[in-house]
Write a structure and sequence with these properties.
Layout lengths: L2 H9 L3 H4 L3 H12 L5 H13 L6 H11 L3 E2 L12 H7 L1 E2 L1 H15 L3 E4 L6 E4 L5 E4 L5 E3 L1 H12 L15 H18 L3 H13 L5 H13 L3 H15 L4 H13 L3
Parallel strand pairs: 1-2
Antiparallel strand pairs: 3-4, 4-5, 5-6
Length: 263
């Protein structure tokens, strides 16, 4: 099974099954950037981090990762794509909020600590389940935050008049986490004009449940930029067959123009 097929098999399964394989799915994203990556070796690295924790609780987890392990946020070069690759984050002990949070989530899962991701606008946190919830900022050395402190951070970042919704702190599942990781990489590779990398990012994003027709069709434009006109046209035609509504005609028209380039 190649890397893309392995990723698809994970994300197309039940969400509760994917919760036990978020680490593997995140590493498979990284393996598309580095096909020689040993996914199983990095899964063992997460096992070792869990084994090194002094106790099965969030305090011991935070101490091991951020004090002993030295994991920290890369605020000096946030847009470095290595910040989004879980293997590089484990090697460098450096990442962005979402990948550092994945480390916390996956080490915590091994310890039996009940954690969930929180996809707050402009930031990503980890939530210790319970009431009231405790929020963990992995980008800020594992600092514990209250709901009030999260709201204060949100207003400081988005402006004092920005509307706050308590649902911003609701737990999210692994599909949402993977989608946000891929969205970060999409933005980076668009900015850097790296079409080859952007193509596989969009390919993986299109495999996630809930991917829209527009998101899936975006990949056709990148394939065309890489002069892979046949693949681009076929992708658009398949989408047109799938939607079979008013969206189909523009998709077929784009495919026809791409096929004309093959002559």
């Amino acid at each position: 099974m190649d890397l893309t097929d392995r990723f698809e098999a994970l994300v197309r399964g039940p969400e509760d099954s994917l919760e036990d394989h978020l680490d593997e799915a995140a590493l498979l994203i990284a393996a598309h950037a580095n096909p020689s990556l040993d996914v199983d070796a990095y899964l063992r690295s997460l096992d070792e981090l869990a084994d090194a924790c002094a106790a099965d609780n969030v305090a011991a987890l935070s101490h091991q990762l951020f004090v002993v392990g030295g994991f920290r946020g890369n605020d000096g070069d946030f847009a470095d794509p290595r910040n989004s690759y879980l293997d590089a984050v484990l090697d460098r002990r450096l990442g962005i909020p979402i990948t550092l949070s994945v480390v916390v989530l996956e080490v915590g899962r091994r310890l039996g600590v009940s954690l969930a991701g929180v996809s707050m606008p402009g930031h990503f946190l980890v939530r210790l389940r319970g009431a009231p919830p405790v929020l963990i900022d992995a980008f800020d050395g594992g600092r514990m935050l209250s709901e009030t402190e999260c709201e204060a951070w949100f207003r400081a970042t988005h402006g004092p008049g920005a509307p706050w919704d308590p649902r911003y702190l609701d737990p999210v599942g692994p599909t949402t986490i993977l989608a946000r990781m891929l969205a970060n990489l999409r933005s980076i590779h668009i900015q850097r004009q790296e079409s080859v990398a952007l193509e596989w990012v969009l390919r993986l994003r299109s495999l996630l449940p809930g991917a829209t027709v527009e998101e899936r069709a975006e990949r056709a434009g990148v394939l065309a930029a890489l002069t892979r006109f046949e693949q681009a046209a076929t992708l658009l035609e398949n989408l047109a067959d799938e939607v079979a509504d008013e969206r189909a005609a523009p998709l077929r028209s784009r495919a026809k123009r791409l096929r004309a380039k093959l002559n």
